[in-house]
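Study both lines:
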Amino acid sequence: MTSLFCCPLCAQPLVRQERTYRCPGGHSFDIAREGHTHLLPVNRKHSAAPGDDPGMARARREFLSKGYYSPLLNTLCNLSVAHTGSAPAILDAGCGEGYYTAGIRQALLDAGKSPRMAGIDISKAILRLAAKRTGDVEFAVASCYRLPLADSSVELLLDCFSPLSVPEFRRVLRGGGTFLYVVPAAEHLWEMKQVLYDRPYRNEEKEVAYEGFTLQEVVGVEAMITLPCQEDIHALFQMTPYYWKTPKEGAARLAALDSLTTHIAFHVHVFRRDA
């Protein structure tokens, strides 16, 4: 079948076969046992194993699978249904372990639509989990700064806590298409940050204009969640940037907790791609 992906070497369309992707230029890319492929050329890698390592990938999967972020998922599903046609092409840029990708796909199917979906992430470890979660989405190791997709090839693009690449997002999103950009709101994980830091800070909130896009609305998502065990607390900690920059004393305080109740708060910026 013809893929949503194109060749990262010559930009020609890829055709997905049983175990490989091939382009008319003769380039081929193996499909891993789990179902994902690798479309990140060696000369564009900045480390031997970029992105989330296997431990971080498992933490993200285990935490999200328990539904703690379901308010955000439900919002993204509703927006995706509202902003797509009957047979949309969709890209999840920075898809992680596929929690939002799979949920959005199911919501579109439930709405009677026939989506074609692709997800990219820089981490091979986390894409193994994404491909296992749903076999009906194309997943590829790739960079959001050089997306292996053709110009104007998608109707909806999702970026949830992932690097922002405005020129590439503008290139692959068709005119009138929708870009959903998820960022943490001011109170996100505030109670956890109070444990980690002597002087916690709230996240900065701002609206930025991006060339080629018109902001339609900003949808707020907020809830309180209770993590009933240290395993879930550590999984949440491990999937945040704080895991890498928290002083040892703060991490030790968090590790001593048996439970944690904290805010989750997000802003979903809904942009329309200008024609």
